[in-house]
Structure formats: structure tokens, C-alpha cells
């Protein structure tokens, strides 16, 4: 049986079994996944779970084989973030499972309800140093909300169900660890019904305090975070913003948390974000952080602006009470669901006279002016403005052209890609300099559209994540951004797309370097470049060899048409396309200026290295 809705699946199952019944542990495992709406999972086949894998298909579960297990974990992450349901990843015990650690860490910081199933060495061999034996629970304990270890075959359904429940309840990855011999035998068990929480708005007293602060605010600003997306609270956030006439800024790497076509939208905060958003936030006397943990990296100074309002009253709303006041000093902390809390605040403000009503029109004009100024700056930004990059531009004059083509400036490319983006698009970005600069150019009108590695910041994230997103939403255009360094870590999953008919579009910014780290060598190490060069063959040619389409872009006027062609191939012909964009080596603002300083050398032989 197969049903994506857990309630429907459970009804079918209960009607069929009438209570506890005899089955194998493998059947209990599979039926519990079916009860939780699992229809796709990602991984590489292995003998450790082959008995269960043998019945995936008749249960209506599609196992999508990948090239590398890290890719499977990222695919499960992308699947979960688009669908709002569990993403599931599985692999062979030992090395197959250890390959997933990075992906599960990324899912943890993205608050994705990913369930990783980790078959383990058999109970009779544990501790003997056998083949592919490892202690698999410690590997993931820092990056999971719950770890379920099946202690007896008869408890297979119990632990499986709990892992799925806890992933949704705590919005993060869980681990289901199963000794490989526990898939076999006969047990009598009942498949548990999925348990889902109803989340409330928060305490009445705190909500009233927040409403009073907002009623007295002269310049309120809303930060719309990832919790708004996860709670499906876009409309409720819009209603609250419209009641206040408040500018809305996206929290870092949550560019899909408020529609860019709304007049109150101002763009994202954080690294390479919107100057308009930052300048408006700087004026706030009351800030509503709706569904945001206010992560430290997402509120750092940027573009020379130390924009966080030091004297503003902060109202923070988060479903996890441990996040309240953790990073920023707050005036009111509300432990509640972003949607329910936004509704509760709007209701409290509906009949009240607000101080900010008197300046609503002036504030709207200021929002429009700041946004227009920022857009004009982006249009005109054809080179980086800091002196180090200007020096680099001079050095590059001789290498602007190659084989009749031209190296393109990343910002101009990003602007052209933005203009060519299709409606309802999903975009994932990798870590790196150009991808980070893309933060200024990625705008969305629909939630569950933008996916980044968040605080984990690992390379090789974007491409497999967009593959998982495409599996969950095959009707939506899917695009990933990666630099050549990150692409080298993930390009092998092109084979997954070709082998299993999962068409996506990958944009590769080929600038022949590790840009983010090289920028640090420019700014802090007197341009001593070590290990930063990445000379590579044509990625478009590699794509063609794998059975995908490959397009090389070396003229600015070809950027938009290339993306449109790739999307047509994806949506109408089922074809994966790799767009290789030949970029200059100009670099954006440094990635970790907050964490680096000019070196001091003590030994004589190193004193010149300052």
C-alpha cells in the first residue's frame, strides 16, 4: 500500500490488520514507514537491510539509488524542505552510514525532518572488530533530535514510529539504528499511528506584552525567518505586516520567507544581503523576529553597515524555547508557532490605534525609496569596490578573453539569471563566494523555494539537495548554484539524474579558484595564494559524457537564454542540463571577516610573511 498522507495510510493499515498481528521485523519497519506517508527514500543498496529493501516496491516505496551517500542525505533534506514531510535516507552499515554525517549536520541546521536509517553490524558480532563495524550512534548524536536504537526485533515498529514522530515534533533529523540481524524472524506487533503536535501561539501574558510594544512602536520591522516557511505562515506574516505598515526583511538564507512582489518586502539580511533591508532595520524601535533564532552569522555587519538596532525592543517568536534570547537580548520571548503567534498578534492589534499609523505613508515611501536605490546599485555594480579586488581587475585585463569567449563578471551574471528565473522556481545554493553574492539577487514569491546549507556551510550541498526537491515537487523548475570547487564534490550525482529520470538544472560558476578562501588571502595574507587554484576541464563536456546536456556560457547576452533553454529541457523534455558559466576571478566581500585578523609572525624566517 502507498499513501502520502499519514492519516490515510494509517486508516488503511488499521482496517486491514484489526490490531496486533504476526509479521517479520522487516515488514513492521516498512509498514510503519508507509503509515508515515513515506513514498520515496534515498540511499545505496546494501546487504545490511536487503530483507526490508526487498519489499519496498510492493509497499509503494521507491528507493532512489545515488552515487554517494552524502548526496542521498542532502536529497532527503531537499525533499523534506519542499514537501514538509519526512525525507528518508538509508545506507550500508559502517562506511555507507558514516558518509552521511555531513548531510545530516546540514539538515540539522536547516531544521529538516530527515530520518536516517542506519543498519548496524549484527548483535553477535558487535565488539569483535568485524567487517564494516562501527559505533554509529556517537557519529550522529550532535546532529540529531532523537536517536532510536532498536533493542529487540519485537520493538521495530515502536522505534521506527518514534523516530518519525520526533523528527516532525522537533523539526530536525532523527536516527533509527537497527542491528542487521533484527530485520529477520517473526514478531507480533501493531503498527503505531503517527503522532503530530498542534502548536499554539504562546502564552497569553507574553502575547499581550508584545502587542503593547507594537502598539507603541514608531518604526516596527518584522524579520521573517525559516519558522514562517515551516509553519506555512506567509499569509499570516503578511497580515501582521500590513496591519503595522512594517517593512519585512528575510532572515539570512530564508529569502523565500516573504514574497518579493509584496510592497513591504525589503530583502534578506546577513552576508551579501540587501542594503535596503539593513538600512530599514537599523531604524527600528521594535523588531518582531518571527520564526527566527537570530543566528549570529545572519546578523553580522555587512556592506560596511553595522545595522543591528542597538536600542530597539526585540520580540522573538520561536517554536523552540531554547532559542529565545540566546543570541540577541530580547524584550519579549514567545515560545510558539509562527502562524498561530502572528494571528494572535494581529487579533490583538486589529481594534487598537497604533502609534505607527500616523507615519504609515511616510514609511511606505521610505521603503520604496530604499529598495529602488538598492536595485539601482545592483544594476550598476559591475566590479567589486574594495581596493584589493580593483588590483585584481588590473591583473586580469590580459585574461579577460579566452578562445574567442569572454570571462563574465559574477554580479552581472547573477542579475541576468535573476531576470530569467521562471515562475514557481526552486533554487539551491552551495557555499562559496559567488553563491553568497547570489543572496542579493535571489527573490521568491512562494515559500519552500530556496535551500542553502545554513549554518553548517558545507560544500557539495546544492546539487543533491535540488535533486531531492525535484523528487518531492516534479512540477516545479529546479535550479542549483555551485562554484567549481563545490561542483567537484557533487557533480557525480548527475548520473543519479540521468539514471533515474530526475531532470534538474545546475548552474556552475567556473572561476578556477576557491573564491571565498582566496579572498581571505587577498585581505589578510598579502595575496600569498596557497592551494586556491582550481584549473579544471570543461564541466559541460563532463555533463555530456554522463548523458546530460551541457552548455558553456561566455557572453553576457547568452546567460538568460541558456537558463531558459535548460528549463525547457527540464520541464518539457525530462533532461538535466549543466550550465557552465565562465567567470572572472573578481571576488566579493570576505566571507569571514569577523573571524580573521592580520597575522603576527614571531620567528625570523617568517617575519616577512605579514
UniProtKB/TrEMBL annotation:
One of its GO terms (cellular component) is acetolactate synthase complex. It is an enzyme of class 2 (transferase). GO terms for biological process: isoleucine biosynthetic process; L-valine biosynthetic process; taurine catabolic process. InterPro entries: DHS-like_NAD/FAD-binding_dom, Sulphoacetald_Actrfrase, THDP-binding, Thiamin_PyroP_enz_cen_dom, Thiamin_PyroP_enz_TPP-bd_dom, TPP_enz, TPP_enzyme_TPP-bd. Coiled coil: none annotated. Its cofactor is Mg(2+); thiamine diphosphate. Residues 1-22 are annotated as: Disordered. Residues 207-345 form the Thiamine pyrophosphate enzyme central domain. Keywords: Acyltransferase, Magnesium, Metal-binding, Thiamine pyrophosphate, Transferase. It holds the Pfam family TPP_enzyme_N. Its EC number is 2.3.3.15. One of its GO terms (molecular function) is sulfoacetaldehyde acetyltransferase activity. Residues 23-137 form the Thiamine pyrophosphate enzyme N-terminal TPP-binding domain. Residues 430-581 form the Thiamine pyrophosphate enzyme TPP-binding domain. It comes from the Bacteria. Belongs to the TPP enzyme family. NCBIfam families: PRK07525.1, sulphoacet_xsc. This is Sulfoacetaldehyde acetyltransferase. It comes from Pandoraea fibrosis.
